[in-house]
Amino acid sequence: MQHASNTLKRVLIVEDNLLFANSLGHVIELAGHEARTASNGRAALKLLFEFLPDLICLNIDLPLYTGAEFLNSYRMTTISPVPIIAFSEKSLSTVDKSTRAGIVAYFREPFDIGIFMRVINRLLDYQRNH
Predict the structure, then answer these.
(1) Model pLDDT, residue 41
(2) Number of domains in the chain
(3) DSSP E strands: which ranges in the chain?
(4) How much is the pTM?
């Protein structure tokens, strides 16, 4: 998977709550990035090669095709993984260790959107400069 190299960074939001996903996407776009949403892991996998995200925001607690299932499939289909910020209503200690691989930041819901955006911006700025 090749990533966009221009200054506009792409963020894939994998979240089943449409209102929250759209709100998060709007905040990400206000920060100067492009955002797309997927309501489950299968939809996110389909978007991966079309959208080529630089960062993935993933709800671990997705119904149907869970965040853990998405991560396992993602790891098998990508050569060049991108940073993943995960969030859940559960504490990180309850998330299986194999699921945690590749997750660079974890937020327990509900979380402060300002802090969440600072982490997103720092990760994307780091990518831009390296």
Answers:
(1) 92
(2) 1
(3) 10-14, 34-38, 55-59, 84-88, 103-108
(4) 0.88
